[in-house]
Specification:
The complex is a heterotetramer, with 2 copies of chain A (about 600 residues) and 2 copies of chain B (about 300 residues). By secondary structure, chain A is of the alpha/beta class. Chain A is about 35% helix and about 20% strand. An 8-stranded mixed sheet of chain B has the order 2-1-3-4-8-7-10-9, sandwiched between helices. A two-stranded antiparallel sheet of chain B has the order 5-6. The chains are: A alpha/beta (about 600), B alpha/beta (about 300). Chains A and C meet through helix 10, helix 11, helix 14 and helix 17 of A and helix 10, helix 11, helix 14 and helix 17 of C. The complex binds thiamine diphosphate (2 copies), iron/sulfur cluster (2 copies) and magnesium ion (2 copies).
């Protein structure tokens, strides 16, 4: 993908104890403050004990991008044994920075220096020594390395100082001092080194109109919830969704709102629905196994037409699967999980800003269409950081609930009445003149149980028809086409986090002269049939890449539209490689596939 | 099978016939569908009277039911209602109460709904001291599904799922709920309607989680064990000197399932879930009082 | 549908207290004993209290049929208020039998006599009077009516005597005597009446080689379980599956086997999987809401490769829905319900014999492919009775488990090894040399947790590939084509109980000169792609009728094959009307639709 | 990200390094992955020794775990194992026992696994008296998911999900399990390893449902509440005259959560689930003895 101006991807590798994640964090905060767009994805060890490998990757660009790059520009090793497997990711003329006198004794072959490719530029530095000199301890190694990178590439030293001070402001002053000293020592060293790299750092783009926030997908969900006025949250911890709850239980009470850890996922969704029935915006968050447990309750939310919002961050499945790996294999469960004809709204954001927007819109939609709304993230999206810029004028509707029309005296409230716009009037406990009972049984317009054929047929139609309006919901783009206009050789249909890599691959394919377009689909259910159909009409071949084995979205697209797509499926537990998509595009366009870099 | 397509006959219409006949006298617009003589009938009277006597407004009361013969209760009373899923009353009620403290929430359900499929939720509603009232109708059987063994079925009882006889020791709900730390625990009997009505009122009046265990014969599927005849002989009032602030004394009474003691076994006042959530908001810096004042405007 | 020889459908209508179901029962038993094929479907009241309407319908034929007829040949009213809505179902020259002096005072218009169509033949009898005369009470009204039908149509009086005696053998002798007397009084009256009806009763077909059993779908499941050697059953009551458990808890202990009611559906499936892991054939049964609760556990059965068998009888949904109505709307849940790529086997029998066979085969498949197998019935199929004739030589495999190959000493058992046939060797606790741990986490060939990309990719492939072998499983027909061979105007693709009505409609369409074929699909997952594709290739238009709103199987067929089908969906809570399917066939074949009868 | 594609490093290989280093001494082929100092380590020693002393064959033992830091225990011992789902150990174990009485089934799990998500199953395993041993490691926190509040977290405890402090009254597992009618109930402490090992042995030896509550500090996520330091001060042996056949005496001891009494709180012998299922088969006319004899052939 051709990015105007700056485009630099930096990876720190080490153990948790090395401060790998911390230093990556400072880098992204600083670059965001400097005005760049940042996207970053850290990988943590799966084990409880912190002896596992950490990788912190940050991509700094001049304009908004949708994914990490496949190749690394700068690799920093804080522990060679963890960095070696990543050496091959560094591009030609990319920098590899490592300690020339590592922490522990190592055998021949255990040094990263022996694993570099010709063309990669090694910077073997006395990192530990510099740290000891600057701070009296080796604990500043990570900061020395970060300073070196900043100095070498000419990044803004002052914003780093600001961010370091901010990060350690609750710690004793000496901590800030030592970290700054280590950073500066590294910076001086880097500034004096020769930069072989062809890439230059452009000035940050013109200051955006609105403040950039540095958010992970999960924290964007939290911001979306708060911005939409969430009143009640119920959740049960599960990787990779737990951090949503952890932030909400911290933030909501500050605003006088209520968040509660429940005894399991069934109670979490049940309480969410209970609160929704009582008229407040409520939500829960989980991952695939928890969503499986919620399937019965989702049906109640559908049948009783009570709003609920469910955030689901997908991880490797089936079953307990791979809790700390990413995957897109809970789509079928999200769309079809429930007994009976239990259609619901499913949104899948493609980037961090989308997480914010989908979160807020989920509350609007749940309320307006009186239905469960599932927002489907995945571990990659939940945990990756991006700079998010949203206009403060963009607000979510404070209430989108259909107003109550009190029953005439002596009459019963028609909670499930058929109306012109297909949506029944709600009533909330506490409102006089609106008394009614909702139920999981089929029921008539009053909410009274009925198993008459015509009532069940009409009500089924009502429940489905109202959802079809959601594809026109204001303020959210549910499909969007990128790339070449008109007829193309290959059209890529992509969803969720994989859209980012798809877009990147599409751009590269266009650079190679392939006529190519990509469509992101954000609303997975009900499927926006018309724009997808039109997109498919315009493409010679349609490619649908997704991180699952069965081709779940491909099945839904073909199942709904009755037409075939080319599937690209894999389940590595990591984001899809741009090269894999690119090769598939080439193949479909009749070009020769190339070896992956 | 065109017959299935004809217009629905609403229960209301049927009710008129029956009310005119003078056979029944209920306070809501709908006709209970329980078997004649069922213990559940005692509920309608008891709940409606209590709500009335406590001076509550209809629209500020929510009745939550799960699945079982109690399911339809919300339809028989003139308050807001939520007929939820089998075993899930308490978490739904917790959600309702979390959303709006001002509502009076009454949960009704059976022994299977509560202690089989829903058994995992009771400890947590009790521990959190959610300010709701849980009326549990224990008939020692699954009524709605036509007569299977329940967690409180007695040993030796023959049902459609224990045709050779039930050999499992029944659960003791009152001991269980006491062990969970419920802040109000009482026992009543559908055959003693007047006492039951009084107990329902006390249970609703209690601020916190109140659990009322109601022994309630299923006249259709139990002809041998928990019949009115047997229960009339077995029940007794709690001893006059029973100290309802003493958890262990309550536990001992709760253990006497052969001679169930009717009355308030245990009660204590401690912060409710809402109290705690407000306290948390206050520690977090929110101005809860201002919020309440605003709401009152 | 043209049936050679006998084809008579008789409906009794009344309240539960009228003995409606009882007399229907005697009719079907007697006709089966006489050597006819019988298919029958009773409808009970939904309320606990027995004041609701009962309809007992029985179709007696000379050869195997797959559904009830849409039209009734003989309607017997034991309560006019319940019978009137069914009067229109009676065909020309069909008989309507009722009491000329009913039990209670009735208004003008409340008598069925006022609701008959010209052409229907009324038989107004002194039913109550005859009962009182024959037995001294009016409690024999149902038997008088039954006797009348038998006499009028010349059915075998002696087999009725045998069945009546058998039915009441545990009661005092007077009961048999009275019932026989009432029957005989009715019979004599009927034999003396003039039969306007054009239909004659053929002699029963040549005695079948093997004994016919009169089974409901649920009892056929039970027989299948017992015949397959089920060792452990765990269940939780839910309509319409409860009777499976009720029969198994009665029958299994007689054979020294163990059946247990658990505290909920999650424990039922968990215990089923536990028992499966311990090496015995185990099963559970539920309906849609229970299956929704089992979704997480199904994933464990998939991931840990532990066999489990789940019978699901569908009812109206979503949520609690319509517990006593039939529907086919849990297919998506059965096929897709679970997190991750959790493919499993789903079988859907189309008739009662199929219930028996699918039940038995489910155990074979679960064991052989080490997977959950869901057998999907619906209320209509669960509760309808058919004569089932199976050769006693047809046996289910006693064990189809892949044998263990003990680990060499010092080595670990490779429970999840890749093998030539794609299926790993099992080992059962208690077996020395087979010690291993199974887990819901992704794992290597030893069963040790792993989240390596290549392991997850290989294992996902293994779990899916092994299932594809199930389409060739011996002893079960997973798809079958009926009707015209070669290219046809309309091809009907049908599943579950709706196949019966589809076949009937297809035959009628052929009678009208439409080239037409129908395919039944019994294996819903993995989908037998090849035969379905070929069938679709041969049809100008493909029609897929199913009792759900969303077109769930249509979505799966299109989703898998990437091609469209014509959907016919409705959710009346009752079986689909043959006429509705027929009209759709006509429309697709370019013929004019006709009004439903 | 080709790195993810490299060959797996089996734990066994790592173990060898460590065993050679002499730092650890475990009986199985795999390396426990608990944090150094975690209470869970006491389990490996206690269980393997007990199985050995009870003369059981490895292949006749099944270890069942749910999800939590206990999950991986089955991988660390040389017996059959089933690592099931969060909260579902007991029903899976019930299935295993129903299928094959001859197996010794040991269930391990945490306080969240047992009393939050799995809380509905314990009453029924106890009531049925399934002949299994349930070792519950109570650390008052969710360890595996990195430090959230659990049903036994103490009041005032700050965790990532109660950042302002936990205000819910903790559950009292021992009282609960006693109220369920468990036939063997004991308490031990991971800091008293020798006593714990003896208790594990007794629990396994008991015929019926045995519940052993093990107080087990989480050294990583709890630095303030259930620490070794605090627990060392709090625990005490049960009084010498404690009558373990007296359910109410046990209940009183179980209530003293501030000073947890270590030892056997309650034990009784009554028919197990399998005994009952056999009795049912016998009433149904099956010749169970013949079946057993056949199996023995
Ligand atoms: C998930 C689920 N499982 C099972 C059922 C079927 N079911 C409905 S009510 C009931 C038991 C009712 O027993 P109880 O709670 O004791 O109530 P009762 O009717 O005896 O008052 C069952 C098993 C259901 N509706 N949903
Ligand atoms: C259905 C489901 N929900 C949530 C989780 C996430 N989860 C795994 S372990 C755990 C809690 C562990 O706490 P505890 O049982 O106390 O065990 P500990 O780790 O403290 O020993 C949770 C919430 C899961 N794996 N599955
Ligand atoms: S079945 Fe039993 S519990 Fe249910 S309404 Fe009838 S008598 Fe009451
Ligand atoms: S997180 Fe806590 S419970 Fe888990 S292994 Fe570490 S110390 Fe033990
Ligand atoms: Mg009951
Ligand atoms: Mg814990």
């Amino acid at each position: 993908m051709t990015i105007n101006g700056t485009d630099l991807q930096i990876a720190f590798c080490g153990s948790a104890g090395d401060g790998t994640i911390a230093v990556g964090d400072i880098l992204k905060q600083a670059m965001a403050m400097a005005g760049y767009r940042v996207i970053a994805f850290d990988q943590y060890p799966a084990e409880i004990r912190g002896f596992g490998k950490c990788v912190s990757r940050t991509r700094v660009t001049g304009e908004q991008v949708y994914s990490m790059k496949q190749q690394t520009d700068i690799l920093v090793s804080l522990d060679d044994s963890h960095a070696i497997p990543h050496a091959s990711e560094v591009r030609d003329f990319g920098a590899v920075i490592y300690d020339n006198a590592p922490m522990s004794l190592m055998m021949e072959g255990e040094h990263i220096s022996g694993h570099l490719q010709p063309g990669q530029i090694p910077y073997a530095l006395p990192i530990r020594e510099i740290s000891e000199r600057a701070t009296g301890s080796n604990r500043g190694r990570n900061m020395v390395a970060l300073g070196f990178v900043a100095g070498l590439y000419g990044l803004q030293q002052d914003v780093f100082h600001t961010i370091i001070a901010r990060k350690f402001k609750t710690k004793p002053a000496a901590v800030t001092k030592d970290n700054t000293a280590a950073f500066d020592a590294g910076f001086d060293l880097g500034a004096g080194e020769f930069l072989f790299d062809e890439v230059s750092i452009g000035a940050p783009p013109a200051k955006a109109k609105h403040e950039a926030r540095m958010l992970s997908g999960n924290s964007a969900v939290v911001e979306g919830c708060l911005d939409a006025g969430i009143e009640a949250y119920f959740g049960y911890p599960i990787t990779p969704a737990t951090t949503i709850m952890e932030r909400l239980v911290t933030e909501m009470p500050k605003r006088g709102k209520r968040a509660l850890q429940t005894e399991d996922e069934i109670s979490a969704i049940a309480a969410t629905i209970g609160a929704g029935y009582a008229g407040v915006r409520s939500a829960t968050a989980t991952s695939g196994p928890g969503l499986a447990l919620m399937a019965e309750m989702l049906g109640l939310s559908v049948m009783a037409e009570v709003p609920s919002v469910i955030f689901v961050s997908q991880r490797g499945g089936p079953s307990t699967g791979m809790p700390t790996k990413t995957e897109q294999s809970d789509l079928n469960l999200a769309v079809f999980g429930g007994s009976g004809d239990a259609q619901r709204i499913v949104l899948a954001p493609t980037n961090v800003e989308g997480c914010w927007r989908c979160a807020g819109k989920a509350f609007e939609m749940a309320e307006r269409y009186q239905t469960p709304v599932i927002v489907l993230l995945d571990l990659y999206l939940s945990n990756r950081y991006e700079t998010v810029i949203v206009s403060p004028d963009e607000r979510f509707e404070a209430s989108s609930s259909k107003a109550m029309v009190p029953a005439k005296s002596g009459e019963k409230y028609q909670r499930f009445a058929k109306t012109d716009d297909g949506i029944s009037p709600r009533a909330i406990p506490g409102q006089a003149g609106g008394i009614h009972t909702v139920t999981g049984l089929e029921h008539n317009d009053l909410g009274r149980p009925s198993d008459q054929a015509n009532i069940h047929m009409d009500m089924s139609e009502k429940r489905h028809n109202k959802l079809s309006k959601a594809v026109d919901h204001p303020g959210i783009t549910i499909t969007k086409r990128f790339g070449d206009e008109g007829d193309v050789e290959v059209g890529i249909l992509a969803w969720g986090s994989t859209f980012g890599e798809s877009l990147e691959a599409m751009m590269l394919a266009r650079d190679e002269g392939i006529k190519c377009a990509a469509m992101k689909v954000v609303m997975m259910s009900p499927l926006p049939e018309q724009p997808i159909s039109e997109f498919m009409d315009s493409a010679n071949e349609v490619l649908l890449p997704e991180l699952n084995y069965e081709g779940q979205f491909a099945g839904i697209v073909s199942g709904t539209l009755g037409r075939p797509v080319n599937r690209l499926n894999m389940v590595p537990g990591t984001p899809m490689r741009v090269d894999d998509i690119l090769n598939e595009i080439r193949r479909l366009a009749g070009r020769e596939a190339k070896d992956a870099a | 099978m065109t017959a299935e397509l004809k217009e629905p006959v609403y229960l209301e219409e049927k009710l008129k016939d029956i009310q005119d006949s003078g056979r029944l006298d209920f306070r809501s617009g709908s006709l209970p569908t329980w078997c004649p003589g069922c213990g559940y009938y005692s509920m309608t009277e008891g709940v409606t009277n209590s709500l009335n006597e406590l001076g509550l407004k209809n629209e500020n009361v929510v009745c939550v039911s799960g699945i079982g013969c109690a399911s339809r209760f919300p339809f028989f009373v003139d308050v807001y209602g939520f007929h939820t899923l089998h075993g899930r009353t308490l978490p739904v009620a917790t959600g309702i109460k979390t959303a709006n403290d001002d509502l009076t929430v009454v949960v009704v359900g059976g022994d299977g709904d509560g202690f089989a499929i829903g058994g995992g939720h009771i400890p947590h509603a009790a521990k959190r001291n959610v300010d709701i009232t849980y009326l549990l109708f224990d008939n020692g059987i699954y009524g709605l599904t036509k007569g299977q063994t329940s967690p409180t079925s007695s040993m030796g009882f023959k049902t459609s799922t224990t045709p050779y006889e039930n050999r499992e020791q029944p659960l003791k709900p009152l001991m269980m709920v006491l062990s969970y730390g419920a802040s109000w625990v009482g026992q009543a009997y559908a055959g003693h309607q007047h006492h039951l009505a009084g107990m329902i009122k006390k249970a609703i009046a209690h601020r916190g989680f109140s659990y009322l265990h109601i022994l309630s014969p299923c006249v259709t599927f139990d002809k041998t064990d928990m019949t009115y005849q047997n229960m009339n002989m077995a029940v007794r009032p709690l001893p006059e000197d029973h100290d309802s602030s003493d958890q262990m004394a309550a536990m001992i009474e709760a253990g006497k399932t052969d001679a169930p003691g009717l009355g308030v076994l245990f009660e204590e006042i401690r912060p409710t879930l809402s109290d705690n959530l407000d306290a948390i908001a206050t520690s977090a810096g929110a101005d809860i009082k201002a919020k309440t004042a605003q709401a009152a405007e």
